[in-house]
Amino acid sequence: MTVHESELTWLSTRELAARIATGELSAREALTDQLARIDSVNPALNAIVTRDDERAYDRAKLADEGYARGEPLGLLHGVPLTHKESTDTAGLRTTRGSPLLADNVPTQDALIIARLHAAGVIMSGKSNVPEFTAGSHTFNPLFGTTVNPYDTTKSAAGSSGGAAAAIAAGIQASGDGSDMGGSLRTPGSFNNIVGMRPSNGRIPHALPADPWKWLAQPGFMARTASDVALLMAAASGPASGAPQSISEPGSVFIRSEFSAPDDHEPGSALASLRIGFSTDLNGLIPVESVVADVVGAAADVFAAAGSEIDDALPDLRDADEVFRVVRALDFVSDYRAIVRSHRAQVKDTVVWNTELGLALTVDEIVSAEAARVRLQGAIESFFAHHDLLVLTASQVAPFDARIEYPRDIDDTPMRDYLDWMRAATIISATGCPAISVPGGFTPEGLPVGIQLVAAPGKDVDLLLAAQGFEELTGHHGRHPEIVA
């Protein structure tokens, strides 16, 4: 079987949307091309697990008819996208990778999905996730394992692993996901793409969902920071029933630097930035040596662009406590009923994390709240004198897809399924926006990402810095060779 590749395969979302907006390409032609790419590469990857071809063609036809009538076009008019399997999509099943929810069909879109569709996106299917999105390796009993386009014996990470593999493989240029403990950033690192966890309230949690949750954040992945900015423009902004909303509209992400990158000096966004840099959080986390080598080399890129680099970091010692307690409580909120009624049919790690939350004492919860206060103070003190943190995105390179998670990192044993993800989970606990950007490759050709972290609310500045690094390195332009 020949792998389908066309002139559209490696276009950015911006370029694809522009061709549709000018009439050079129809929404139906873009969808046909996407589905042909899925047909040819998805059997090797298992990234897309639910198809919606017929209704997608109906939506694309309506989009083309609207264009013909001269109707106003959204930012993403006619662009076909699959969505993360665990995110509610009205009329299309959302199973969270569990046989217990195999027939679950939501009646309402999640806010991020509703905003993408309002911007003109054509929903064409759903991408794979770990069971109940737990853990950063995408496998489940309903759909199986998603593998890495750069080496199909390796993990694509998770929980947005199906979306990441699809983007890296040329099925689509960008896509939605969510990030509690690195579920956008770790797949970004493993698949040589960009994965951004926004500030809390940027794409707000809104009723009827719990509007007070903050640890998990909806966000986006793409092959470029510019495309992430475009999707953020479409999906960001305050919402009713969302008391933690950031008041700025999505239009703050519409910047000439993203839409016309040739109009400025490559890497100019990095000039004069004050950066705290570390590959291992100054000894707080173990990191594979091949990963540390790639991340360490990024310091030279920033320095050459005019950034001021030191090894200062905020005090992050409270972050583990905050993350583990809040995550456990969120698992109790989301999964206690299903664990109690179907324990034997739920993944062990989901049971463990839920029961960890059920066993928490009042003293432990109060202690975690106090730790979060101290952590907030540390973050504010650091960003009073720095613009950016530059860190490791994932402590390991893509690992064997047959195992659940790495049991040790350079002879340091992992105590549980969360421990190997601490490069991401520690940052999640801070509430800072963070982004994984392609940083290079191991000697075996496996992708490695670097993690950029900015102060809460500085999402636009974070994306500009990420784009500046892209411009100077070009790592994002290296695509995988996929054998059908």
Automatic annotation (TrEMBL):
Domain of life: Bacteria
GO molecular function terms listed in the Swiss-Prot or TrEMBL record: amidase activity
All copies of domain Amidase, residue ranges: 30-463
Alphabetized Pfam families for the sequence: Amidase
EC number(s) on file: 3.5.1.4
Protein's UniProt keywords contain Hydrolase: yes
Sorted UniProt keywords: Hydrolase
EC class: hydrolase
PANTHER family, per database record: INDOLEACETAMIDE HYDROLASE, TRANSAMIDASE
This protein's name: Amidase
Species name: Microbacterium murale
